[in-house]
Amino acid sequence: MSAVDGPLAPITNGSSRMNGSALNGKGDTNGDLHDGISEPAPAKPISFDPEVFRSFLASLLPPLFGASPEELESIFDEDFHERASRFAPEGGGVIYVVKKKDEQESEDAPPSYSYKITPTLTYDPSHVTTLAIIKRGPVLDSTFPMSTQLHILNLFGSDETPYESLHAVISGAMKPYFEAFVGARGGGKDGDSKMGIPVTKKKFAELELSLLHLQQNVEIPETHLIIHPIIQRTVEQALQQGHRPNISDLPPKLLNDSTFLNTLQNHVNQWIKSIQTVTRLTRDVSSGTASQEINFWLSLEHALEGIEVQLRSDEVTMVMEALRNAKRFRATVSFVADTGLKDAMDKVHKYNQLMKDFPLNELLSATDLDKIQEAVVLIFLHMNRKLKLSPYPVNRVLPLAEAISRDFNDALLRVLTSTRLLYTPYETFERLLSQTIAIFRTWDDHVKEFTNTAREVTRKRNEKFIPIKVVSAHAKVQDRIRYLRDWRKQHEQLAVMTAPTKGLSGAGNEIGGMDMEAEVKEAYEVMKRIDVLDVTTEGNEIWMTAENAYNERVARVENQIIARLRDRLGTARNANEMFRVFSKFNALFVRPKIRGAIQEYQTQLIDSVKEDIKRLHEKFKTQYRFSEAYHMSQMRDLPPISGAIIWARQIDRQLQAYMKRVEDVLGKGWELYAEGQKLQSESTAFRKKLDVRPVYEAWLHDINRRDMGVGGRLFEIVRLRGGGYQLAVNFDPQIITLFKEVRNLLWQNFQVPHAITNMAKDAKRVYPHAVSLMETVRTYGQTLDLVEHNKGIEWLVAEYRNEAQRMVTRGMNIRWDYFVNQYDTARYVSGDGVRDNKHIQFVRELASVVSILQDKTNNVIDLYKDIQRSVEDLSTCPYTPEAFRDLLSKIQTAIDRLNLEGYANLDHWVAELDERIESILLQRVTHVIQLFCNEFERADDDGRREPVTIASKRRDKRAKNDKSTDGALVLAPIIHEIRIQNQVIFLDPPIEHARAIWVHQLHEWLGTVCRLKRIQSSRYEIGLQMQGHTATDVTYTSLLTRFPDTTLEKPFSLIEQKVQSLKQYVAKWLQFQSLWDLETEYVFNRLGDSLANWQQLLTEIKKARSTFDTTETQKPFGVCVIDYEQVQARVNAKYDAWQRDILSRYGVKLGNAMKEMHAAILKARNELEHHSIEGLVGGVPRRF
Question: Where is this region: Disordered (predicted)?
């Protein structure tokens, strides 16, 4: 009875509970509250008055035990106070009050009972009633009522077993109380799972089920073999002496004593009868439950094992040896055969192959529908598997399955009844019943499999034929649930359509003055009052009565709906509006009365469907190839034959949808009408045209006629029409189409011949590689075209192109057969380190190499284009160091990126690029030199000029249109002043300064290009950096040595010419220094008295005066200006002084000369006048 403590433990209340250590430090139960407590002030013990407990029991026990207070006085003996005082402080204690029936000397005497209190519980058949008194808290307090501190539990007795009482306590009190508490708490399913509530429910169900099984078990009679006392003593003595008992231990006289031997033989006969009672025990499997059948065979095996153990005992062995020694062979030889123990053990052992580990408890303890479904699956899997191993008769396993069906029915009813189906929302109701129907379907599927297994087992065992059929006990419940589901669905449809949101409720009020929504609810209330799952005769009658009452109320609602529906159909303007009305109220057409009211619109709807079918005819006649579906199929990668078949089947499905539309609206049997027959015949004829079988067979014929296969070399060389050759993949595209056709046809459930399927499988195996190769070859060709169109990158991608060509050369000897044959061997190799064969690796390597070639080519083309743009910009960019450096920096960055990415032949390519850049820069430098020279060569006729802008002075047409070129180059003129200081004339700055400035400016313009850093291909090469380079290798200074003619010499010669012209002009001004350096007397002495010299000097003075005697203050020389404003006045004044002096002196000289000449002439005149003229006339004639 100790098992009772387990289920009673949960009854104790956990509130205000204290453990033993709270009462004493050691946690013992001796009631000493001070032991082990280390506090200096021990707690005061709680006092308890036993008289309060005594009065409580004196009031409680008489009605429960049916005894008078005087009869119960034996409980309150002198030890009661001690027991009560010990019970009160003990934590979680319990005491038991037992009513025991006393033994009677005579049967006629009235029964008498005794009563006692005990702290421990024992079981005895004489116990009539046992009352368990359980404390709710750790201690009892006599100041509070005992009823609030104690649990009272009545454990009934005087039964054969306590199973009935315990089952009643669990199923009637504990389990409902727990479920009521959980339900009132309102926790969600997830929260319950986290708290372990479903597990606890399952444990309660299992405990309840176990107690029920214990009640239902068939008791197997225990067999005890009778042993002769002499044999018993002899065996005990032999065992005490430590040797194996033998008949030699018996007195020899007894071995020949016929009386003794007859007694032993009688005992053996009794053994046979008692063993036969067990071995011949059987039960009717059709009666009782499945658990009783299972427990019967398990218990029978246990009983037979017990008998077998007794038969192997020393006592039985000695009895059999004694009988054999006395030649009583009749009792010994046939003993085993007479008992039938061996056969029974063998049969029971084989039967229990089915019974052991039978998962029936999963079904019986299931608490929800999911558990029930899982249990059904487990049960039938176990039965189907074990029935093939166990010889358990088929004529017994069928009733066993029916018994399981009864348990299955009970489990379903237990779960479904607890949910109150009609009170649940429709979504929950539908979910539960759908799940229930799915469970029924699972049961039917497994029963079908079970019956097939039973037939197979019957055929193998050659047993007598019996009908293999399982009569399900849940058939009525299954029919009721299906009917209930349909009924609730129709009701919900009616309730939804009569709701205010559908507009029918208001219409009903207008027509008939009835609130349809309320009427439907009232009708449903009638059904909610009954048990809808009661399928007994009485339950069926109640169901029919309630359903008739429901139908009466609903009929009035249907009449209102019919009136409204006919009004809407009557006002419909075309068939589409009718179909919209039908689609809106289609949920109501399941009701026969409403369905019959709309049949008059049959003709109109048939005409509408005819029009739709006619449009399908037109669609079909346009042919698949000219339809939009054909182009869509190509986009979806559907081959032509499969696309045509799918297209035809789509039209067929649309035709069926139109037919189904008419059937849904007009009801079943619509094709029996005259118009319906015609429509049916037209649709049938059209469907014959939509038959895709001829298309499929024509395709099969075409494939069989062709010689298609996967073979040959991997690559082929194709001659192009325009000349030349091209690499291509030797793979027939029709093979790819075949593979896709077969795949889609198999999806369409066509039976493709095995040979074509194998061919398609071969194509499928190599298809990924073929597509990869074709894509790789196409990419390779496109990449080579890119290289061809970009000649400048050939050197850079030469290494990657050579690698791709090596791979192509390697693949020229590979054949497709290698892929087909070696693919299968590789796919079944086990292990993690599976590697593809070399041919598949080749495809991947080729794709990788070509992909790298493509990436490198695209990358280098982008960089090459950037470099080209930068190089082209060098010829048009502004002539500034920043512009050139930016462009060269971009070029160098691109070259560095090429170097980092490892392009081959970069040195050679960069060298060629550098030569091109040099030629462009050389042109720029030559042009700049020409500009410089033009400035020095240009004649300056405009006088004083503004600063010169070189870009505005370009003569070539290209430079005039380029606004950005050389716009920042300015050649400003240099101003030299002629000064006089300390009577010394000098040029400031000197002419050599102008030469230096012009040369420096020329150098600056040339340095704009020559100082630029050259592009390098090896900036990331450590070895080259360590070798070092000269300055000429780093910059473009060497361009100055690249001029083909005297271009570079010309500006320097022009500078020298300009300097000479300046010197000549300045020399004239410097000559005026003599105006201050010369002495007048020295000049006069030099001139002497020669008037011609004086005249010449005056002429030269007048001519030299034009140098400074002007209104201008500057003398321009193109890029240089001589400013003489500062000395002009002083030189002019000095010059005037000199001119006056010389002129005055010249006047004196001239006057003196004139005087002398006049005197000479006068003298000569006088002399002439004194000569006679006659002497002259006679003389020789003279010629003048």
Answer: 1-41
